Amino acid sequence: MPHPNPAAPLAPGAGLPPLGRRGVLQAGLAAGSLLLAGRTAQAQPSRPQEIKIGIATYLSGPASVFGVPGRQAAEMLIDQLNAEGGIGGVKLRPIFVDEGPGVDHVVGEFRRLAQSEDVDLIFSAISSADCLACAPLADELKRLTILWDCGTQRIFEEARYDYAFRTQANATPEVLAALLYLLKMKPDFRSLAVVNQDYAWGRDSWDIWRTAMNTLKPGVRVVAELFPRFGATDYSTEITRLLALRPDVVFSTTWGGDLDTLIRQSADRRLFERSTFVLPLAESSMERVGKALPAGHIVGARGDHWFLHPNPRDPELLRRFTNDFRQRFGAYPIYSCHHMAQAIFATKAAYEKAMQAKGGGWPTDAELAQAFRGLEFPSLTSTVRIREDGQGLEDQIIGTTMATDAYPFPVMTDMVVFKGESITTPAGQKSADWLKTLTPAMLDQMPQPIAYKP
Amino acid sequence: MKRHAELLLALLGVLAVVLVAWAVPWLRFVLTIALAKGLAVLGILLLLRAGQVSFGHALFVAFAAYVVAFLAPLLPETLLLLPVAALGSALLGLLVGLFVVRYREIFFGMLNLALSMVFYSVLEKFYAITHGTDGIRLAPTRFAGMALEGAAQGWSVLLLALALSLGFGVLVRLHLASPMGQALAGIKTREPRLEFMGVPARRVLLSAYVLSACMAGCGGALIAMTTRHVTPALAYWTASGELVFIAILGGAGSVLGPFLGALAYELTRVYAAALVADAWQMILGTVLLLVILFAPGGLWGMGRALFARRRAA
């Protein structure tokens, strides 16, 4: 594996007993000077050569089904933005780091990005654990951090941060939207089963669903709570039980390869004919599972992310993004691509807002952070507002699958686009408490479903 | 003579770590993690002397890390949390050790692995208490009564890690030279003879096991205080595998080996990840393969061979 810079890998030599070798010393010095680039001139920053963005995403492991498309979207959008002249005439440069190895690795990489690469912003991360660990670090190192994809609602409900912001929704609206949709479209269901991956997201999302369901429609019989192992390859036990129990509804926030497997095995055993599935993350699996996912089941996209969005703010923008992405990477963009786009669009909007407030001067980190608070920026499909507490208000799309000849996979019909503020926990409240105050009147305010138009 | 040389090397190493951490601030975090893992690997080395490989020492690392995470709000003092966590790990080591020291080789390794995975599942499944895979954020802690922040906090943990590494390094060195340590090597070569001599092999191994659990606990507490966020991944079998990997990389010939290995491992990992974000695993794997194929004595063995050749020339 040849590399033009042999100094960096040699730097471990600095930690060993010195051998007195000139080579080692030189390498150490070279690495040292490379690494020592500090963040200077904080008081009155001049326009930099480039805006460096550290991006933590999954490049390895099961969650790379989101991480790699997210990275691809970042590369494409940054190329396009740079071709148009960048932000305020300054070009962007992404530096990607892998979330795969776990929290301590990501925390180390975060420090490297902030202290050695001296990036201007950090997009972190997909994993909720990584976000929970990085948000306090953002404040400690005073480095602007966009929590670009993680779902946990705990971050801004349990603490306040000056340098961390979220450019998308969180688990509460994502799960609540699917529940409201189910209550509207299939109000007389009486029994329900859950099949979630056995880890924090699977447990959290079920908690949110159950709390909201017990408030809005008490008396639903939960016939089974199944938590198969994360990364399971065989769901025959779960499917057998569901076939025997015949719940009206099967709820599952499973994602990635696990969801693909669950859908295929359920289709093989005709579980889809007996129960209605509610799959809030199925948008990201649709192209892979194809027609194995039959018509008439409820799917979501962790936001209003759907390439056939019924009424996007700028239809041309969405169409161009989808086509460019397909042309370059050979797949339809999924929600993580949209989340990445939102992080990049928010960055652009925040810089422009901060520069405007400063009369065209380049903003300091603190001024840029100030610009994020209350920022409104365009997404690929609508607009997102970052609330006072740092949480983004993002719309949610939920629809029902239908088969069409135009695509080799199901599309959504009867789509409802929920407004972000109507289903997000108000600032300063905890989701668990807020969900208990919901009333069925919420259903009357729901937007009308929009059918698929070929 | 050799003992003095080792001590000198260790002190030079400490100096080098401090210098690097001072010159390159972001590496301070990486170095602290490396030393913490080095402490845990030192425990593995102790068992390796007896010919036993534990594939489950992440259990003690994670246990101590969670002890720190749970106790930090009640007892926000680093200098108290660390011994409590280490003692907790040692007690757990005694409990687990009573069972596992009855087994040897693959059975010993696998039983350890199984127990660490049981603990992993407990952390993951008792969701309401442990927050599952999202993990627990460490509450702010004080150091000797002082509320430190940012860089000072990082330095305090690094210096603590260095002190512990030196202390335990000396202790293990003395232990290995003592009759108890010699008996460990006896377990590896021929255990029945040890018994004929009236030395209870199980008790020898148990004491080494408890000591190794205690050191892994110190490592775990340091990791928790450095990352300030603990997740069940600390107890996962890959974390144990990593410790064995480091032991092989560093070499079992000296108490300096584990620290050498841990520093090399962590630095290779961060630099590989910085150079090629999506193929760093390959670089790490290649390094290990090369070490296994060409330097079975690990980095320590390699360095010593180089040194000996130069002296001969």
Please tell me about this protein's structure.
The complex is a heterodimer of chains A (454) and B (313). Chain A is of the alpha/beta class and 454 residues long. Chain A contains 17 helices and 15 strands. Chain A has helices at 7-10, 22-35, 64-83, 103-115, 128-141, 154-158, 171-185, 200-216, 236-245, 256-268, 286-289, 315-329, 335-357, 365-372, 420-423, 431-434, 441-444; strands at 50-57, 91-98, 121-123, 144-147, 164-166, 191-195, 221-226, 249-251, 276-279, 298-300, 376-378, 383-386, 392-393, 396-402, 411-418. Chain A is globular. The model of chain A is unreliable at 1-42 (pLDDT under 50). Chain B has 313 residues and is an all-alpha fold. Helix content of chain B is 78%, strand content 1%. Chain B is built from 14 helices and two strands. Chain B has helices at residues 2-23, 25-49, 58-71, 78-100, 105-125, 127-130, 150-177, 179-189, 191-196, 201-227, 237-250, 256-275, 280-294, 298-312, and strands at 136-137, 229-230. Chain B has a two-stranded antiparallel sheet with strand order 1-2. In chain B, helix 7 (150-177) runs antiparallel to helix 10 and helix 11 (237-250) packs across helix 12.
Shape descriptor of chain B reads globular
Oligomeric state as shown: heterodimer
* Distance between the amino and carboxyl termini of chain B: 21 Å
Which chains make the largest contact? A-B, 48 and 55 residues
Low-confidence residue ranges of chain B? none
Number of strands of chain A: 15
Tally of helical segments of chain A:
17
Order of strands across the widest beta sheet of chain A? 7-6-8-9-10-14-15
pLDDT averaged over residues of chain A: 86
* Overall morphology of chain A: globular
Tell me, rounded to a whole number, the average pLDDT of chain B: 86
Question: Largest sheet of chain B, described in full?
Answer: 2 strands, antiparallel
Structural class based on helices, strands and sheet pairing of chain A? alpha/beta
Radius of gyration of chain B: 19 Å
Q: Please count the helical segments of chain B.
A: 14
Structural class of chain B: mainly alpha
User: Biggest β-sheet of chain A, characterized?
Assistant: 7 strands, mixed
